[in-house]
Write a structure and sequence with these properties.
Elements (H helix, E strand, L loop, with lengths): L1 E5 L5 E8 L5 E10 L5 E5 L4 E6 L8 E6 L6 E5 L4 E8 L4 E10 L2 E9 L10 E2 L10 E4 L5 E4 L5 E4 L8 E3 L10 E4 L5 E5 L4 E5 L4 E6 L9 E6 L6 E6 L4 E5 L5 E3 L7
Antiparallel strand pairs: 1-2, 2-3, 4-5, 5-6, 6-7, 8-9, 9-10, 10-11, 12-13, 13-14, 14-15, 16-17, 17-18, 18-19, 20-21, 21-22, 22-23
């Protein structure tokens, strides 16, 4: 397991933890000190490399760094050029990292997909994605097979198949008229979750149909920032808001399994 948190001063710590058979985090295995705010972290299996997207809180371009974790003390393998990164993931099968980034090209904002070797070497040139808007995405997520979902300001969601620059699915009705701040795809890519202020929508992708809208009940939850389906079946959906509160829903009937702040289950 990997975690990132701000500690003393302006230093951020990225930590790798050993997980026991009981699912509990054991000793802190390795630690990386970072001098910029950590926005995203992904770890390469079986833990030989880690990539962290370090974007300053101002939203300006940060850096993408790759670390060699094979020795007792982590080593910086490579640092990529400045970029504003919206999503970062590791593909277990292809053994590479994937980023969704924003760059400027001839004065326009361009959304790109980039592939990276665990040692930080780029795999080919960045692929420009046809997102249909000259603005930065409000949210993005990368599935385990490199499928991408990108939320666009006032333009819904676009989903891109691996290696494709044109979307295979578009829906402008997702959280219509609201800002989408978090996205998730189920493992089988049949379900899309989109979260914003105090609500989350679940969509059937193949049927382009809204299945249900999830809300936190009477709890005062702010904008949702992170969404994750349970692996394999997508039966559960976990969401975290800007205050770090977590809520878990049953996606089949919309019931709340764990209300915000309740970790008993």
């Amino acid at each position: 397991m990997v975690t990132a948190a701000k500690e003393e001063g302006d230093t951020w710590k990225v930590k790798l933890w050993r997980i026991g058979d009981d699912g509990e985090a054991k000793d802190n295995h390795q630690t990386i000190s970072v001098g910029e705010p950590v926005k995203l972290v992904a770890i390469g299996k079986p833990g030989v490399a880690i990539a962290s997207a370090k974007n300053p809180a101002s939203g300006k371009s940060g850096t993408l760094s790759f670390w060699d974790m094979t020795s007792e003390k982590p080593k910086l393998a490579k640092t990529g050029g400045p970029r504003l990164i919206h999503a970062l993931s590791y593909n277990d099968q292809a053994k590479h990292f994937v980023t969704v980034s924003i760059i400027k090209d001839e004065g326009k904002l361009v959304t790109t997909r980039e592939l990276w070797e665990p040692n930080g070497e780029a795999k080919g040139d960045p692929m420009k994605l046809e997102v249909g808007a000259d603005t930065a995405p409000t949210a993005a997520v990368i599935a385990r097979d490199d499928t991408l979902a990108i939320a666009r300001p006032q333009a819904g969601v676009a989903i891109f198949a691996p290696g494709e620059s044109k979307p295979k699915f578009e829906n402008k009705q997702v959280l219509e008229s609201k800002t989408i701040s978090a996205l998730a795809l189920s493992d089988n890519k049949t379900l899309l979750a989109a979260g914003g202020y105090e609500e989350v929508e679940i969509w059937n992708i193949s049927e382009n149909r809204l299945l249900r809208t999830l809300r936190p009940g009477n709890a005062a939850v702010l904008d949702f920032r992170t969404l994750n389906f349970s692996h394999d079946d997508g039966r559960l959906l976990a969401a975290a808001d800007t205050q770090g509160r977590i809520i878990v829903w049953n996606t089949q009937d919309g019931s709340i399994v764990n209300p915000p702040g309740d970790t008993s289950n």
